[in-house]
C-alpha cells in the first residue's frame, strides 16, 4: 500500500492532477497495486484566505509519505517568491530532494520547433542539483531603497552536494544505457570558484565510471548546442540555477510544457513529481490545457515506487495519444479537452 501525498495547488494544477489520478487508478487496477491518497491544500488560494503557506505539521506528514504528487504552485495575486520559496523550495530543501530530474524526449507525432530534428535526435535527460547554488537564499540587502543600496545573492556549492549530484548523474547514465555520455554544464571561464569545484569533482567521480564518456559545455554554449545538435546529449549534469534555465529550453524542444515533467528526487527518501508547467491562470477552469505533463509526472512517480512495468505502460499510452489523437499540445488546440486526453490515456492503458 503506497502512501501518496497529493498537492493539486493553484490554477490549472488541480485539473491536470485529476487526470494524473485517473490514470493512476486505471494503472493500479491493471497492475494490481494499492495506494492511499492524502490530499493537501497548499496553494496561493489558501495563503490568501488563511495566511498559511506550508505549516510545519504538514511538512512532517509529507516526510512520512512514499511519494508526493504536485500540480502547480503560483497565484497572480501573491508576490513572486512567497509561494515558490515557502512551498516548493522548502519542500525540496527540507526533504533533501537533491536531484531535479528532467527527461527530454521528443515522441513521434509531437511537434518540435527545431527544423530537421526528430525523435531520434531529441532524447536526453538533465540532472539538476536541487538543494544548493543560488537557490539557497543566502544574501540580503544593505541600505535598501536608498541610492546606496546593495543587494547580495550568494550561490553556495558544497563538495558533498556537488559530488552526490554528479555521482547520481553517472549512475543514471549507466542504468539508462543509451549513448553512455555525461556532459557537465557549467561556466568555468567566469565562475572560477564554483565551477572549479564542479569540474574537479566531475573528473574524480568519472574515474569510477570508465564505461562512460565525459564532456563539458559552458551554459551559454549548451543553449546553442541544444538547439543546433540536441543529438549530442545523453545525460547533462548541472547546478540548480543553470539547470532551471536550460530545462525550460529543453522542454520547448520536446514539445513544450504540455508534455514536460520532472522529479524532485531524494534517492534515499521521499521524492516529489510535478509537471514542469506553472499554474497558467489564464486557462484555469477552461479544460483546455494538456494533462500529459502531469501524467508523465505520474509515470515518473510509478518508476520511483518501483512499479516499472506500470510506468512503461503509462509511457506507451502517452506515446499513442500524441501519435494518434491529439493535434497539438498547445492549450486549446489539442482537439480534446483536458479530461478527454486523460480518458484517451486510460483507454490505451486498458488496451482498448
Ligand atoms: C522549476 C520552477 C521553480 C524553480 C520555481 C517555481 C521556484 O521554475 O521547477 O523549474 O525555479 O526551480
Ligand atoms: Mn524552472
Short structural summary:
Helix content is 41%, strand content 22%.
Instruction: Please give the share of residues in helix.
Output: 40-55%
Task: Report the major sheet.
Answer: 10 strands, mixed
Mean pLDDT: 97
Shape: globular
Give the full name of the CATH homologous superfamily. Isopropylmalate Dehydrogenase
Low-confidence blocks of residues: none
Give the number of DSSP strands.
12
Structure notes:
The longest helix has 19 residues, at 13-31. The chain is of the alpha/beta class. The chain has a single domain, classed as Isopropylmalate Dehydrogenase. The model has no long low-confidence stretch (mean pLDDT 97). It is built from eleven helices and twelve strands. The strands form two sheets. Strands 2-1-3-12-11-4-5-10-8-9 form a ten-stranded mixed beta sheet, sandwiched between helices. It is globular. The structure holds 3-isopropylmalic acid (IPM) and manganese (II) ion. Manganese (II) ion binds at residues 244, 248.
Amino acid at each position: 500500500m503506497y502512501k501518496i501525498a497529493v498537492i493539486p495547488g493553484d490554477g490549472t494544477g488541480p485539473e491536470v492532477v485529476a487526470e494524473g489520478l485517473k490514470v493512476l487508478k486505471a494503472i493500479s487496477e491493471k497492475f494490481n497495486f494499492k495506494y492511499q491518497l492524502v490530499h493537501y491544500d497548499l496553494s496561493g488560494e489558501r495563503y490568501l484566505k488563511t495566511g498559511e503557506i506550508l505549516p510545519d505539521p504538514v511538512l512532517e506528514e509529507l516526510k512520512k509519505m512514499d511519494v508526493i504528487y504536485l500540480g502547480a504552485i503560483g497565484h497572480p495575486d501573491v508576490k513572486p517568491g512567497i509561494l515558490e520559496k515557502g512551498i516548493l523550495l522548502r519542500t525540496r530543501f527540507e526533504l533533501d530532494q537533491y536531484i531535479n530530474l528532467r527527461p527530454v524526449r521528443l515522441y513521434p507525432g509531437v511537434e518540435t520547433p527545431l527544423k530537421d530534428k526528430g525523435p531520434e535526435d531529441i532524447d536526453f535527460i538533465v540532472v539538476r542539483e536541487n538543494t544548493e547554488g543560488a537557490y539557497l537564499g543566502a544574501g540580503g540587502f544593505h541600505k535598501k531603497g536608498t541610492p546606496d543600496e546593495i543587494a547580495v545573492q550568494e550561490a553556495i556549492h558544497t563538495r558533498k552536494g556537488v559530488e552526490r549530484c554528479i555521482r547520481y548523474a553517472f549512475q543514471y547514465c549507466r542504468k539508462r544505457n543509451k549513448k553512455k555520455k555525461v556532459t557537465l554544464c557549467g561556466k568555468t571561464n567566469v565562475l572560477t570558484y564554483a565551477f572549479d569545484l564542479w569540474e574537479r569533482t566531475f573528473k574524480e567521480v568519472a574515474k569510477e565510471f570508465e564505461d562512460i564518456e565525459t564532456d563539458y559545455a559552458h551554459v551559454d554554449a549548451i543553449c546553442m548546442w541544444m538547439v543546433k545538435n540536441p543529438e549530442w546529449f545523453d545525460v547533462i549534469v548541472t547546478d540548480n540555477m543553470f539547470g532551471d534555465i536550460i530545462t525550460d529550453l529543453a522542454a520547448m524542444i520536446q514539445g513544450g510544457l504540455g508534455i514536460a515533467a520532472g522529479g524532485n528526487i531524494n534517492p534515499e527518501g521521499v521524492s516529489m513529481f510535478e509537471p514542469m508547467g506553472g499554474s497558467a491562470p489564464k486557462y484555469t477552469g477552461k479544460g483546455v490545457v494538456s494533462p500529459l505533463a502531469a501524467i508523465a509526472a505520474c509515470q515518473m512517480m510509478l518508476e520511483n515506487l518501483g512499479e516499472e512495468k506500470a510506468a512503461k505502460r503509462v509511457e506507451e499510452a502517452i506515446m499513442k495519444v500524441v501519435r494518434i489523437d491529439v493535434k497539438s499540445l498547445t492549450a486549446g488546440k489539442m482537439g480534446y479537452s483536458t479530461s478527454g486526453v486523460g480518458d484517451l490515456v486510460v483507454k490505451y492503458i486498458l488496451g482498448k
